[in-house]
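Intended use. Records like the one below are meant for learning the mapping from a protein sequence to its folded structure. Do not use them to infer anything beyond what is encoded.
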Amino acid sequence: MNSLSIIQQLMIEEFGLEASQVGSEANLEELGVDSLATIEFMFLLEDKFKLRMSDNPVAVKTVGDIAREIDRLLAQQQAVSAASN
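Structure written out for the chain above:
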């Protein structure tokens, strides 16, 4: 799954950004998204994608980093679900 477009849209809505600003290589700090806002955004994504974030948070610096982490968690969740069926 590629969550990038959903994450980009949510960033536009949550942080008042323009679509041109939230490319996959966009740096979160340069967008004005500090570490606390990033953590809160990750909790929003946890709810949106019905995920459980790792107890060991992964450092994310770009929009693409967030998408890769969400995609990894979704794949992990699907694998666990498939194995239990």
